[in-house]
Amino acid sequence: MGLILARMGVCTFHTKDLHPISVPTPNPLLNDSMSNYLHYSRTAPVHILVRDPVEQRVIVDIKLSLALTEPILAFSQQLAVGGRVLWASGCILPGQDPRGGEKVCQDMVVLESVRGVIFACEFDGHGPGGEAVVAHCRSFVTSYFFSHIDSAAKTPQEFLISCNEECDQSLNASVNCQSAGCTAVMMVYHKGEMHFSGVGDSRAMLATAASPANVKVSQPARGDDKELLEGIKLRRSVTIGHTFAAVQMTLDQKPEDPAELQRIREAGGVVMRLEDERGRRVGPYRVWKVEGMYPGIAMSRSLGDAVAHEIGIISTPIISSHRETPEMDFFLVLASDGVWDVMENQEVCDFVEAYRHKAVRNCDSPNFHDPVQPDNVTIAQLLCEEARARWLLVVEAEDVNIDDISCVILELQTSGERKRRAPSRVVARPKETEDVPGLEKTVRHRTTHGADPKRDPVSPLLSPQVTVRELETSGDSKATINDPRRSSVSQFSLP
User: Fold this and answer.
1) Is the Cβ–Cβ distance between 230 and 222 less than 8 Å?
2) Are the CB atoms for 453 and 460 separated by under 8 Å?
3) Cis previous bond, 371, omega within 30
4) Are residues 220 and 281 in the same domain?
5) Position 31 in a domain
6) Helical H segments across 197-257, by residue range
7) Which H/E stretch holds residue 45?
8) pLDDT tens-digit series, residues 54-88
9) What is the pTM of this model?
10) Structural domain total, the chain
11) What average pLDDT does the segment 452-472 reach?
């Protein structure tokens, strides 16, 4: 398998500090929820544990019966490409605030196929007005693809770079994106060649039975919630009778990467982590404008985010390419961090392979069932439902919103069980999250309580401010981050 990684701008790939670890087989005694048939109900009991910000002891256990959101898009369709018939499916599952607060879906997917070229995209919006950003991106890239189909087929890498950069320029001219933006992962498939572009931390993954030689992209290390996610993994991972390797095709772009960090510093930006009330560093590294301490974006590249682009955030994508290995490459997954935050690459790979042959094919709208199970929804919707089931466990432990969840799955082979097996599964994983030497002092945040949960156990439900953390800033500009571990960008008001 030949994977070609092109460096666009100043970004490079760093594989130091990687050490191989074997991925254990899940304990079947803890795997009862992932038996041959899955069931996802439309309501879920949730116990939110509200903790003291300093002592971390549980103050109150809020018990909810949560009516879950329905997909706003779900489809499965055949694509005729070069004499072959491929299957593609997609889904957008809106996130929600378990406490009942308003949350607008800011995810978007695109899938188009014409003249033997497949074009797929996933956008994950952030900030106030992120839904307008992704709506504009969908319209722009769809039109751009149809008007530049020859370029997509003949020079796909140049097409992807131009598509991203011109989309960013059109955003600034058409949408208020001072403090709103989105990630973007795109793919062009033509004559067995796959070309990917990544801006931000949405991700593309290939499931293959071939040896993933020369792969230079590794899955990012788990952060502060590593133990929680490992526990969820043991409870919900699925075991398949054969093994595929999950190969990450795009790079999650983080501001602490040395090359990205240099560009941001040269543009006047500062990269720092947040610090909680006990002096502990929490969440990812974020990019700040020194004089106002905003926008607090947790990625080094994005579309939109005009203020962040003044301090080194860029829209130029990182490009990767792969020539399909016949009868060895099985499917591709493009997804938002609503999936990747709670499922590892290999878990997504195993889950999709375990259930894609049982899922519904050939539909153009969501199927509403209670419960959802493999024989009544598409494989894309099933993957999103599984990610949400894991988010519900995160909600109970961390008192956060459920993120928007979206994906596009392209099946390169749709036959049944395969005799071929991949090599023994060994994953190169970075060491645990550590402070990067030379980065600036962390920013301290405090917890703002809208009510006293000790005295009024019901008040957290009525006051979403109970978990909002505000940055201590000077002047009139203010940034807030709903959860410093999981929000990709702060909400801020310009001075």
Assistant:
1) yes
2) yes
3) yes
4) no
5) no
6) 226-236
7) strand 43-51
8) 666 777 788 889 999 999 999 999 998 888 889 99
9) 0.82
10) 2
11) 29
